[in-house]
Design brief:
Layout (H helix, E strand, L loop, with lengths): L1 H22 L2 H28 L11 E5 L5 E4 L4 E6 L4 E5 L6 E6 L7 E7 L4 E8 L7 E3 L17 H6 L2 H5 L24 H12 L9 E4 L2 E11 L2 E10 L7 E10 L11 E2 L4 E5 L16 E8 L7 E9 L6 E5 L1 H4 L3 E2 L4
Parallel strand pairs: 1-7, 2-8, 10-18
Antiparallel strand pairs: 2-5, 3-6, 4-5, 6-7, 9-10, 10-11, 11-15, 12-13, 12-16, 14-15, 16-17
Length: 353
């Protein structure tokens, strides 16, 4: 009975409140509605913001590394992939790429004692590297190599952890730790040059191995002025072509070549048409011996001069050929060797193991 009376009392109270609100002027009713919205909406908006910008388990934070630079010393950053972009926080942080290289960045201070700034580097493999850049007259590190970070045979400096403790933890955690020191590189790092996966040392290592290989291409030679230039072999390794030439001089005047250049040229040229040669970029060139050296029982020994030229990989279409021009230093004894497309089909692969 008491519950029924209580419900009837509440119902009467609500009806009386509604009647009172309806009897209020329209202006007062609008003002009351606005106050209700002002009091209720901010709490709702804050609740939405806290849900949107709060910490999320799917979010990954890349911590910034500390980088100290100076005005009179250049810091070199070597990345595992080509640099896509580099953004400086201030103009006094000087950052430029090394000419001919895609994964090396030079960083230097534009003025002394500047306020701390930032540097962000994005590489083509999708990695982001963030740096807190500060000034120091004598930076502790001048070359920082980030390519071998995931190897376990390198120790951190000054963090008090032994190698066994480091290997037990995921290396990505150490990589994104802003308080961790840089890793000490046991050996010297190499640099990738633009367009090829080989570096300078690897190219010359291949050239040294080619020097000892016997000739396998026959009949591609040019004789003139008592000088013979012949192609002895063509080799391929990691997007690089290596051409091995033999140079012999039977003339009484010694021969010293000034340049050896490679061109792609059309087989037949129409009359009154300028020759359009496409010169190939030479990555490296190395020679051994002298053209006058022959295998005899005399004082001189050898088999002439061996020349190896490295160029980026290319192919020749039908109707074209490879032209090799050899020019003499301080002389006019110049030679041009023609190499047909079918000769390049005999290219062999270098086994560097």
């Amino acid at each position: 009975m008491k519950n029924i009376q209580r419900s009837l009392k509440e119902k009467n109270t609500k009806e009386n409140t509604l009647k009172t609100v309806r009897k209020m002027p329209v202006s007062l009713n609008c003002i009351a509605t606005m106050w209700v919205l002002i009091l209720l909406l901010p709490g709702h908006i804050l609740a939405q913001n806290s849900a949107s910008f709060g910490p999320s388990p799917m979010m990954q934070v890349v911590a910034a590394r500390n980088l100290e630079v100076s005005c009179n010393r250049t810091c070199m950053l070597i990345f595992p992939a080509a640099i896509q972009s580099a953004d400086r926080g201030a103009a006094y942080v000087l950052a430029t790429r090394v000419p001919g290289s895609e994964n090396v960045l030079k960083v230097k201070a534009g003025r002394s004692g500047f306020n701390p700034s930032s540097l962000t580097v994005i590489t083509k493999d999708g990695q982001v590297y963030a740096f807190n850049v500060s000034y120091k007259a004598r930076p502790p590190y001048l070359v920082l190599d980030f390519r071998l970070e995931k190897e376990n045979n390198r120790k951190p400096i000054g963090n008090g952890r032994c190698k066994e403790q480091q290997e037990q933890q995921p290396y990505a955690q150490f990589r994104n730790n802003p308080k961790a020191d840089y890793l000490q590189n046991v050996g010297s790092g190499s640099v990738h040059f633009s367009g090829i996966p080989l570096n300078y040392a690897e190219v010359h290592q291949c050239m040294e191995s080619i020097k000892l290989k016997p000739a396998f291409i026959k009949g591609v030679h040019k004789n003139r002025f008592g000088i013979e230039l012949k192609l002895e072999g063509v080799y391929f390794h990691k997007e690089v072509l290596f051409f091995k030439f033999g140079l012999h001089n039977k003339d009484g005047i010694p021969f010293k070549f000034e340049s050896l250049r490679l061109f792609i040229r059309d087989n037949k040229m129409a009359r009154r048409t300028a020759v359009q040669d496409q010169e190939l970029e030479t990555l490296a060139k190395k020679s051994w011996g002298l053209p006058e050296q022959v295998n005899t029982s005399g004082n001189t020994t050898g088999n002439g001069q061996q020349i190896v030229v490295a160029v980026p990989r290319f192919t020749i279409a039908d109707g074209k050929r490879l032209a090799v021009t050899l020019r003499e230093e301080a002389g006019d004894r110049h030679l041009t060797l023609k190499v047909k497309e079918r000769v390049l089909r005999k290219t062999r692969t270098i086994n560097t193991k």
